[in-house]
């Protein structure tokens, strides 16, 4: 009996197999073909790895795939990045030219990141954590006086920068709050924005007209440090900013100054350098909630990685296009500036 297609799991770190493939998902993957593993201490020799790459129809992981290596992979149909970013470890042009799907599993983080963003927003709008801390120092205020800087999220004007998987998940969660939502996303058509009951806007209007702004944009060659003092100054004093996706899009010195002055309150899950330095002033400022890049890293999210990989592998091996994972797009992938994740 001829062997089925070879599925190679190579360099999925920092993900482990147990983290992303529950037994049922791994069993389904093995039903699709022969699974070879170059991970979790089960490393192939250089000769074995080269032979596996030459036969692989599916590659799962972040192994380096330059053009010269890809040229020897005549059976290849798809590459899955399970870290969650489109990294510069692949010759995307070669893949586009030869019809190879390059996919990542970032959609799995949408719900968990959006939940954290919503929780932080509610906390900052209603000053829940700051009131809790006031109790610890025996300086709490009571009744109306305690709500001097608070406001309802319900009915307030909200801005979203980046309406991809994360922003769209947050938009769905905001529906019961009856917020007017403005969106800045230069990679989406106005039609796609309006389909999600949002108002297409430029970046200035998002900051000027919104009392709560969520940052979900991918890090690209065009938007590094694009949000700084000028944009933050457009916000109404006491507004709330959530930094949830890529730290590179915002000038953190300007953000720190704006929080220190009380102009904005901020929830931050991502930082330019991680872990955050022990002497960072952000650790001691009032009006900020800090999160250790943990909003997406839920066990449920990691197990969803394997499910998405299996679902799309089944389709691809049947000659059908993938539907669950995010595809690398010819027009935009070269602009991505995401940093590799070093810790799950």
Explain what the structure shows.
The chain is 34% helix and 16% strand. The protein has 344 residues and is an alpha/beta fold. It has 2 domains: 6-105 and 299-335, 3-Layer(aba) Sandwich (Rossmann fold); 110-290, 3-Layer(aba) Sandwich (Rossmann fold), CATH 3.40.50. The strands form 2 sheets. It has a 7-stranded parallel β-sheet with strand order 8-7-6-9-10-11-12, sandwiched between helices. It has a 6-stranded mixed β-sheet with strand order 2-1-3-4-5-13. It is elongated, with a radius of gyration of 22 Å.
In short:
With 344 residues, the protein is α/β, with parallel strands linked by helices.
User: Average pLDDT value?
Assistant: 95
Largest beta sheet, briefly? 7 strands, parallel
Give the helix proportion (percent range). Answer: 25-40%
Instruction: Name the shape in a single word.
Output: elongated
- Main-sheet strand order equals 8-7-6-9-10-11-12
Classify the secondary structure makeup into a structural class.
alpha/beta
CATH homologous superfamily caption of the largest domain: NAD(P)-binding Rossmann-like Domain
Low-confidence stretches: none
H/E element order: EHHEHEHEHEHHEHEHEHEHEHEEHE
Count the strands? Answer: 13
Q: Cα distance, first to last residue?
A: 40 Å
Could you state the oligomeric state of the chains shown? single chain
Q: What is the count of DSSP helices, taking H or I runs of 4+ residues? A: 13
Radius of gyration, whole Å: 22 Å
Q: Which architecture of the largest domain per CATH?
A: 3-Layer(aba) Sandwich
Give the CATH class of the largest domain.
Alpha Beta
Strand content: 15-25%
CATH fold naming of the largest domain: Rossmann fold
Q: What's the number of structural domains?
A: 2
